[in-house]
Structures are given as C-alpha cells and as structure tokens.
Amino acid sequence: MGNLLTWLATYYSERLAIQYSDTIIALNERDNRQLATIYRRKADHLLPVSFEDRFDPSRLNDNPHSRLKGLFIGSLFYANYHGIKWFVQHVAPFINADIDIVGKNFETVRNELETSPNVHVIGSVTDMAEYIYNADFLIAPIFEGSGMKLKTAEALMYGKTVFGTTEAFEGYEVDYERVGGLCNTAEEFIDKINGIKGSAIRYNSYCREIYLQKYSNEVSARKFRSFFKI
C-alpha cells in the first residue's frame, strides 16, 4: 500500500510540474516520446548529457601494449553488473584483448567475473582516469536503463574508441564505425574488437571532436542560454 501511495503522489506531482512548466527539457527523443505518452505533453527542447572537460593530453601513453587492453568502467549496480557479466561469459574468451573492469565495489564480485584469463577486475580506484588513459578502447555492454549513459560522454571526452550497445549510445549522435562500433550481440562485439587494426588506437580524434562539438559543458551552457534567451 505504501508503494502505491508513493507512486500516486509522485505521478500527481510530476503531472502538476509538467502542466505548469513554461519550458520542458528532455535528454533525448526516447524520453520525449515517453513524456508524451505518460503526460500528454512533449518537451520544448532536447538537451543531451554533457561532461566536464578533464582531458589532459600529456597523460596519454603512446607506448603500445603487448596485447590490446579494453576497459569497462562503472559502479556496481544491476545494469552494469548484468552487462559486464554477459560480456565476460559470451565475448571475453573469444577476443584478442585483455579486459580491465574498474568501478566502485566491483572487487566484491571478482570471483564471479574473472572466469576468463584475459579478464581482470580492478574494482574501486582513487584515479579512474589513469586506467582510461592507458586503455586502447572502452566497452559498454549495457542492455538496460533509461535516459543517456554519462560514461559514454566521458569516454568521448577522453577521445576513446567505444564498442557499445544501442542502449549505451542512446541519445548520442555519432558515426558508429568511427566511434568504435555498435554491438548488440556477442558476435558483433567479437568481430568489431578482433577487427581492430594496429595497436595505436589509444586516442580517437573523432571521439574527442564529437565531444567538443556536442557533449561538453560549454555546449550545454550555450544551449541553456539559447533556450531561455539569457
């Protein structure tokens, strides 16, 4: 009963907020469609997620690894756990790369995930950027969720090649082939990762440029000023 009352109160409050708002902003077209379906009103503007620019080119390491190094980043919650567990079971044993898993509390499920010799669970770290700079590419096997994935914007900010699912790229306007690859099946992840040519892919200039054009905080600030004519 308590959960029902909470849901009704939330729905009622959201409906009033939407009814009396002068301007509504949604992250992407999917959220806009859901807004129209549930509350019968579409957003006035779309504003994708953005990320603070922390890129430091001096931290890039151009020395090639003896074996390609992929990276998964994210804290331990159900969508991340489900996605990376699927990846280590169905993809990792068949790719020519090592995979590091970095994120808060992932060390608690190390035994569940280190089932292939090329998978290494790092878990909680104080400086995640160190691992991102050192990675040749990032993986984003995310199959559940809503909105947009902030980690995708972070990867673009660092100029990282990304192999991800439709959910991981939801709301992002990118050329999938140039950003890395759109992969929704084990076969697609395997083919894309094993198809990497050369080892000098640690910096993807296309990803960095897309970030600067569309997903930096500066771009979002300009859009906000435009929306509200500040």
Key features of this structure:
single chain, 230 residues, alpha/beta, six-stranded parallel sheet, two-stranded parallel sheet, 10 helices
Structure description:
With 230 residues, the chain is of the alpha/beta class. It contains ten helices and eight strands. The chain has helices at 2-20, 29-39, 78-90, 110-113, 128-134, 150-157, 176-179, 186-194, 205-215, 217-228; strands at 25-26, 45-46, 68-73, 97-102, 119-123, 137-140, 162-164, 180-182. The strands form two sheets. Strands 5-4-3-6-7-8 form a six-stranded parallel β-sheet, with helices on both faces. It is globular. The model has no long low-confidence stretch (mean pLDDT 93).
Specify the biggest β-sheet.
6 strands, parallel
Gyration radius, in Å: 19 Å
Question: Helix-strand pattern, N to C?
Answer: HEHEEHEHEHEHEHEHHH
Number of helices: 10
Distance between the termini: 45 Å
Specify the helix fraction band: 40-55%
Query: Which band does the percent of strand residues land in?
Result: 5-15%
- Round the mean pLDDT to the nearest integer and report it: 93
β-strand number: 8
Helices and strands in order:
Blueprint: H1 2-20, E1 25-26, H2 29-39, E2 45-46, E3 68-73, H3 78-90, E4 97-102, H4 110-113, E5 119-123, H5 128-134, E6 137-140, H6 150-157, E7 162-164, H7 176-179, E8 180-182, H8 186-194, H9 205-215, H10 217-228
Helix pairs in contact: 6-9, 9-10
Quick structural overview:
With 230 residues, the chain is α/β, with parallel strands linked by helices.
